[in-house]
Amino acid sequence: MNRRVLIVGSGGQLGIELFREFGARGYEVTGLKRAELDIADPVKVDHCIAGLDPAFVINAAAYNMVDVAEKEPAAAFQVNALAVRNLAVACRQADATLVHFSTDYVFDGEKGTPYVEEDETHPLGAYAVSKLAGELYARAYLEKALVIRTSGVFGPQGLNTARGNFIELMLRLAKSHQPIKVVEDHVASPTYSPVLAARTADLVERRAHGIYHAGGGTPISWFEYARLIFRLAGLEPELRPTNEREYRTAARRPRYSALSNNKLEASGVEPFPSLETAVRSYLQLRERYATTS
Ligand SMILES: NC(=O)c1ccc[n+]([C@@H]2O[C@H](COP(=O)([O-])OP(=O)(O)OC[C@H]3O[C@@H](n4cnc5c(N)ncnc54)[C@H](OP(=O)(O)O)[C@@H]3O)[C@@H](O)[C@H]2O)c1
Fold first, then answer.
1. Which overall architecture, per CATH, does domain 4-222+246-292 show?
2. Which residue among 21, 34, 115, 148 has the greatest number of ligand 1 atoms within 8 angstroms of its CB, and so is best to mutate?
3. DSSP count for the chain of H helices, then E strands
4. pTM of the entire predicted model
5. Which residue of 67, 72, 171, 250 is most buried, as measured by CB atoms within 10 A?
């Protein structure tokens, strides 16, 4: 059986963990960072996939700058939608399964309880539209693409990426000794990337296809999440709640975008650990990254 796996976008928070997870499970893994393969280049994508002949192509690459995307929607669409089309077309030629990641932001947040896969999508901005288009491209060209929607991803690689993640932002702000304002009227389900990588491998091994939600499993407001981070990190900055009206961003965001993992768990995949367990693990790993790098 062909156990070759190609991971594109392998330098990101999720990509690096997917590389580790599939490697640990005995797959023959090739990880390509952006500098090694720009997925927006259809000729290079085609050439790479045809040459490697993988059984699975896992797309961890994305344009994730939600607010900047409002100024440059074409750049977001290029990576999150058209590049997914490049991957899907090449996978079709090579008979490879495409595993693609999408976002809780495909929803408008009006539902108020965790979103299930069948819920109607209604993206609120350029980033969200581009991610929904990526899902459609993956599923347009391939009968058995696996699309995994996730939420608020955090992993220790966030220490080394320009974009980072919410925990790194909070730790950085705490050092400024200024009051920190965080919205209390937006809820998501923050997702720990090493666990997401393991659950992805579980789905791949079950030959799952179609859309699956894999969020961290704990719906929480960003304010409460910040409070949890500071408690576990042993920090006591001045943390103040704010709201969407007071804290305007370029992009509209769903107020409530937590994801239900019911379908994932019904397929026999283990539930995510609690957010507290995940953040504790993150902070420990982070310390190890900081002392060994
Ligand atoms: N982060 C979140 O909060 C969040 C929330 C919901 C869903 N998601 C989804 O989860 C998945 C993983 O996200 P993540 O947090 O791991 O993101 P990340 O840490 O920002 O990593 C994304 C990676 O994609 C690379 N990339 C960007 N454009 C590329 C291109 N044209 N060709 C090849 N690589 C390219 C980036 O490289 P450079 O750094 O060099 O640009 C980066 O290494 C994505 O599909 C994302 O949309 C993330």
1. 3-Layer(aba) Sandwich (3.40)
2. 34
3. 10, 12
4. 0.97
5. 171
